[in-house]
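Homework help board

Subject: predicted structure for assignment chain

Our instructor gave us this sequence and asked us to write out the predicted structure in C-alpha cell form, then describe one feature. I got the C-alpha cells but I'm not sure how to describe them. Can anyone check?
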Amino acid sequence: MDAQGRGRADDVDPADQWVLNPNTGEYELRLAPSAPQSAVPGPRGSAPAPSRPGAPRGRTTTPVAPGRDVPPPRRRRGTPPEEPLPGRRGRRPVKQQSKAKKALLWTGGTMALVLVAGATTGWFYLKHLEGNVGTTDVGDAAASSFSKDEAFNILIIGTDKRTGEGNEGYGDAGSVGHADTTILLHVAKDRSNATALSIPRDLIVDIPDCKTNREDGSSSVVAGQDGVRFNRSLGESGRDAGCTMRTVEAATGIKPHHFVMADFNAVKTLTTAVDGVEVCVENAVNDKKSKLVLPAGESKVEGEKALAFVRTRHAFGNEGDLDRIKVQQQFLGSLMRKMTSGDTLTSPTKLLKLAEAATNALTVDEAIGKVGTLKDIALELKKVPTKNISFMTVPVKDNPAETIKATVVVDETKAPPIFDAIKNDVSFTEVKAQQKKEKAEIAARLKGTRSAASDVRVRILNGGAAAGSAQQQLAYLQTEAGVTKSDNAGNAEAALARTTLEYDPDQADQARRLADIMGLSGSALKPGKSVTNAQGLPAMTLTLGKDFKGAGVKLNASTAAPEVDKSTADKVQCAS
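My C-alpha cell output:
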C-alpha cells in the first residue's frame, strides 16, 4: 500500500506526512523510519515478552497488567514516537495542529502529487494539444523563430469562413475565408505595454505579389492587385496568411513577425471555455440579421451569442464596419480581462478547456506551431498590464474615388505618426513616462564636455530622408558648422523613422557636440561601435531618418506617441 493509503488506514491525516524542507522551500513526503515492530502479546494473562537488547526507546512492549485481558495499547503507525529520534526534532501531536496548518500541508501534498503526475502525462497532453494546432508555411513572410527578448508583432486574422457546426446559416456559405477582422498586435520589448491596431477590411490597399506553398512541396506566386479592399489579401486566388502579412507591411511599413488565424468557431469555443464574457450596450439590441438580442446595460455572452455580438453591424453607430471594429475591440478587452482573471487562472478545469479551445481554433505560421512556443508567447503577453494594452484603428478617410462611400483610404496626415510609434516601440499608454525617460536620457547622455567641431569625425547615411539629404547635410556640416572631418557614406541598409547617431563610448565628447549642432535628443544617441571614415580614422555614424527636416534644421523632436483615439483593455465600455 502506498504512503497515502497507509495514512488513511491508520487514521493519520495524509497532510501530516508532508513536511516543509527549509533548504528547498518545498513540501516533501516524510514517513516514519522503519523500525522493529513491538512484540506481539502472548495469550491472555501470560507474561510480557521481553524487550530485545538495543531496541530504540519507546519501542518496547508494554506489559499486560495482572488480571486484565486487554492487550497493550499500540502506537499508531505514521505518528511520531514519544521521544524524538536521534538527529530529528520532535513534532507536536496531530491533535494540536491548527486546521489552517493542516489545510496548508494537505494542499502542498496534493499539489506535489499533481506535479508528479503531470511530469509523466504532461508530455503526452502537450503532444495532443500540438496536434490540434494547424500551421501554414508562409516562407519569409514570417520570422523563422520567436524571440522572448525582443519586441514582436503578431497579425491576428479573423476569417469569415463558414466552416464548423452551426456556422452555415450566417450567409455567404461559399466564402473562401477573407481577412474579415485583422489586428496587428505589437508587444513592447520591455513588456510594459502593447498596441492592438485594427485594420479595416474595407481599406483600399495595394496587395503585393506573394508566394504560396502547397502541402505537396510545390509553390506558386499569386499576382498582386492595386487599389482593392484589404480583406481580399486572404483567400482570394489562393492567397494565404503570408499574403496578408505582406500586405500589412506594404500598407503600414510595420513587418508582422508571426500570424494567428481563427474562424467563427474560435469566438464560440473560447467564450464558452471561460464561462462567458461580460459586454455592455448603451441601448437594448434586437438585430434580426445577426440575431443578437441584448438588454441595455451589462450582459454575459458566450457561444453563438458571443459570435453574434462581434458580427453585428446594424445595432451600433452608423451600421458600418468602423463602428463594428470599436465594438470588437471592447469585446476583446473584456475577453482579455476574463482570461487573466483569478476565476480562470485558478481553475484547472477552465484552463484545460481554454487550452483545448484555443489550440483547436487556431492556425499559425510554422515557427510558432509548437505548443511550447505558443505557451512562451502567452507568458510574454501575460507580462503586459491590461491597463497598458491600447486598442486603436488605422486612421482613415472616405475614398475620394467613390461617389457612394463604401471604402476608405489611409489618412496620410494622421496614420504615419502611429505607424512610426509602433515601429519605434513607443507606448501609447505611457506617454508621460516616455517623456520623463527621454529627459533623463538627455540629461545623462548630453551632460559632460564637448569636443571642438573640428575634432568631430562622422560618416553620414541616408536612412529614409529625402533623396540627396546626406550630401546636403554633409555640405552644411563642413561649410557652416565646422565639422570638416565628415563624409557621405551613401544609403543605410534599412529605413529609420528617426535620425540616430551611433558612437563609441570614447567618442562621447564628439557625440555631444554633434547633438548640439543638429538638435539631437538624448534618445537619438546610441552607444555602440565606431566605424572607419574615408581617412582611415575612427568615426561615428549619423543615419538620417524620415524625421530629418533638411540641412541645418534642428531636430528637437520628442519620441512621445501621438495623441490618438484609443481604448485600453482594462476599461469597461458600453457599445453605442
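Reply (TA_rk): Your C-alpha cells look well-formed. For the description, you could write something like this. Residues 312 and 399 are 23 Å apart (CA to CA). That's the kind of observation they're looking for.
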